[in-house]
């Protein structure tokens, strides 16, 4: 094996796994080419490495040239970055998703004669997911979606209505599987999710995570001029840590708790928008958690849309619910018994304000150029930072425009009381 264009240097345990994957895919002679896996500002909690296995494979006695493009996630080399963002804990969750949760989901779909390839291709193919923190051997190796035509949405351009509807439709199916497992296999559901909530580690005092979130909320307060909007964001700043502790309890939503992606924003969505065959993949299941389905919806709508799209909030909610109800019925459960549209609206009244916590910090990243986004390797647990990005006059105006529409929706829909 030969490493070329190494960025960063590849640890030995990753080389070993790549060699094992090459052998399983019948590569005879091959090189492994390495490059950076994402641009600055696209990812925060892990180090991404793009890898391509290039060489010869044997198929039916015939030797052919082949490439296998992969994306590898490993723990950040920087120890302070690991500590500040509980990297070990979030890595555990994603490995747990691919090794435990996804197979449970797939098994149910197979029992219901639902094609995973045609109706539930919600995440990239995973080749390896290892979590062994005692030996520092933590990695996830997936297909490189860019090699098959997927890409991130331009973060400077908020998602349009059609694309937001597409995301919510797929999210409805993802949540429906949890409802069906709880309904039909409760003993499995009750044991399905047992890993530690990372936010309870990140938000444990006055560390980097807290100062970044509170600093970004203050950035938002400083750019607003509407008295009601300022009052709402001040309330968010004063209460967000309590909300996080309460909302993220696994029993907070009672019988409506489902597995959430947990970090559903622009940079964790990859699209293939060629012709009429529009496809979506969710990536980065590092904040996977059991909670209200509204948490995913609120997080996404608050961070990744625009004022025009949010004006059609009722239509978007209907798209989500119709998808959930249709897929839940297909899975053999009754949505009118498990989760009605009225239940969804009630969950929004309880948890809809959750998205406001992260809207400031993530919109700030999306409206900013790469050079204005913080270098995560410089972050320490005692770092005092006003958000993840330094805003200029132009980006302040963009932040104001987008966050104002989210706050106004929260007021109108009754998610916040002022």
Give your account of this protein's structure:
By secondary structure, the chain is of the alpha+beta class. The protein folds into 2 domains: 72 residues, no CATH class; 264 residues, Aminoglycoside 3'-phosphotransferase, Chain: A, domain 2 (Alpha-Beta Complex). Helices cover 49% and strands 16% of the residues. The strands form 3 sheets. Strands 1-2-3-4-6-5 form a 6-stranded mixed sheet. Strand 5 and strand 6 form a beta hairpin. Helix 8 packs across helix 15, helix 10 packs across helix 14 and helix 10 runs parallel beside helix 15. The longest helix has 25 residues. The N terminus is likely disordered.
The shape is: globular
In whole angstroms, the N-to-C terminal distance is 62 Å
Order of helices and strands: EHEEEHHHEEEHHHHHEEEEHHHHHHH
What's the number of structural domains? 2
CATH architecture of the largest domain: Alpha-Beta Complex
**Total helical segments:** 16
How are the strands ordered across the major sheet?
A: 1-2-3-4-6-5
- The name CATH uses for the topology of the largest domain is Aminoglycoside 3'-phosphotransferase, Chain: A, domain 2
Q: How large is the radius of gyration?
A: 21 Å
Mean pLDDT, to the nearest integer, reads 89
The secondary-structure class comes to: alpha+beta
How much of the sequence lies in strands comes to 15-25%
Main sheet: strands, sense, barrel = 6 strands, mixed
InterPro entries: CHK_kinase-like, EcKL, Kinase-like_dom_sf
Protein name: CHK kinase-like domain-containing protein
Domain CHK kinase-like: 140-330
């Amino acid at each position: 094996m030969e490493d070329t264009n190494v960025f960063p240097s590849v640890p030995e345990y990753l080389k070993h796994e790549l060699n094992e994957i090459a052998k399983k895919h019948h590569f005879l002679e091959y090189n492994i080419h390495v490059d950076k896996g994402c641009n600055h500002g696209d990812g925060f909690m892990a180090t991404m490495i793009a890898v391509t296995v290039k060489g010869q494979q044997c198929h039916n006695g015939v030797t052919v040239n082949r490439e296998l493009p992969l994306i590898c996630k490993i723990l950040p080399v920087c120890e302070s970055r690991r500590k500040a963002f509980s990297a070990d804990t979030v890595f555990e969750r994603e490995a747990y998703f691919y090794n435990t949760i996804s197979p449970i989901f797939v098994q149910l779909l197979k029992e219901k004669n639902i094609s995973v390839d045609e109706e539930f291709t919600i995440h990239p193919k995973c080749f390896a997911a290892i979590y062994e923190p005692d030996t520092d051997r933590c990695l996830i190796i997936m297909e490189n979606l860019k090699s098959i035509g997927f890409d991130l949405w331009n973060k400077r351009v908020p998602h349009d209505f059609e694309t937001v509807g597409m995301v919510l439709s797929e999210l409805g199916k993802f949540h429906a599987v949890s409802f069906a497992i709880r309904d039909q296999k409760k003993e499995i559901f009750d044991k399905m999710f047992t890993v530690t909530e990372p936010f309870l580690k990140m938000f444990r005092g006055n560390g980097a995570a807290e100062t970044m979130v509170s600093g970004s909320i203050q950035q938002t307060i400083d750019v607003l001029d509407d008295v009601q909007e300022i009052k709402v964001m001040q309330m968010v700043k004063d209460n967000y840590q309590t909300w996080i502790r309460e909302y993220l309890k696994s029993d907070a939503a009672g019988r409506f708790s489902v597995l959430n992606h947990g970090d559903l924003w622009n940079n964790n969505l990859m699209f293939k928008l060629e012709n009429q065959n529009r496809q979506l993949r969710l990536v980065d299941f590092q904040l996977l958690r059991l909670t209200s389905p509204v948490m995913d919806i609120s997080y996404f709508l608050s961070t990744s849309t625009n004022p025009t799209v949010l004006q059609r909030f009722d239509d978007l909610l209907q798209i989500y619910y119709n998808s959930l109800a249709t897929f839940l019925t297909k899975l053999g459960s009754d949505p009118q018994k498990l989760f009605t549209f009225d239940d969804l609206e009630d969950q929004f009244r309880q948890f809809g304000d959750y998205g406001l916590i992260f809207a400031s910090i993530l919109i700030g990243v999306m409206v900013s150029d790469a050079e204005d986004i913080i270098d995560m390797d410089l972050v320490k647990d005692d770092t005092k930072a006003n958000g993840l990005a330094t805003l200029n006059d132009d980006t302040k105006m963009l932040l104001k425009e987008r966050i104002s529409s989210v706050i106004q929706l929260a007021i109108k829909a009754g998610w916040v009381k002022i």
